[in-house]
Amino acid sequence: MRRVIFNQKGGVGKSTITCNLAAISAAEGRRTLVIDLDIQSNATQYLLGNKETDANKSIVHFFKNTLSLGLFGGGQGTGLESLVQETPFPNLYIIPAHPDLEPLQGRLESRYKIFKLKEALDHLENFDDIYIDTPPVLNFYSQSALIAADKCLIPFDCDAFAKDALYSLMQSLSEVKADHNEKLEIEGIVVNQFQKQANLPQQLVDELIKEGHPVLESKISPSIKVRESHTYAQPLIHYAPNHKLAEEFKALYAEITA
Q1: CATH code of the domain in which 59 resides
Q2: How many domains are there within the chain?
């Protein structure tokens, strides 16, 4: 199963949701891969800490190869296998991001390499689940992820700006589905930073449900534990396995995999 976590609005928790769901998948005994396509490399830092990433051992290397060699040139298989790195957590692996993604984007767009990630993942074996973290914009990398994915999770933080942005996002997803990936399924909207005692968040969620949007039942509360888990580079099921937030992520994982 390939899941992309995507929203065109920044700061909605894409990397946090990606890494915590992937960590739960791995803890369940499933061989799980995270692919970080965001130049900010938040997922990479969350799972590997702040150590410097070599561009030649990151997803940048794969995309450079698509420009110079084609997908299977040079006898290198899909071009992804050699980039997979172990994390400190059993069954959990990552292909890191790197800042060199930014200057590479224009060349990839002009050469129309938008399907190369999908083609490579179609041939990548030995993983039960793949989670793809994306930049907060509909660019070459996020489109590549949406074309390669089976399902899309949409993080949503509870404010009026996020609701307005959601309409544009749903239109963009519909266009990607119609033009490039008819199998793409919007798995659901993940309500993040949900304060159930406040009126506005519940009002916004009720409006989304009334409008027919696929809001998932499981919601993620705000907590300082998230920032702490980022600092210590440990997803919540490892950093604070008995905390309420860890339980919320477990419930979310159970809901999407039911």
Answers
A1: 3.40.50.300
A2: 1
Cα–Cα distance, 7 to 154 (Å, whole number): 6
pLDDT digits over 120-143, tens only?
999 999 999 999 999 999 999 999
The residue assigned the tokens 């200057």 is 103
Range of the domain at 195: 2-257
Place of tokens 């907060």: 136
Instruction: Say how far apart CA 246 and CA 220 lie, in whole Å.
Output: 9
Which residues, in sequence order, are CB contacts of 78 under 8 Å at separation 6+?
Answer: 71, 72, 119, 120, 121, 123, 124
- Amino acid at residue number 112: Y
pLDDT in tens, 203-242: 999 999 999 999 999 999 999 999 999 999 999 999 999 9
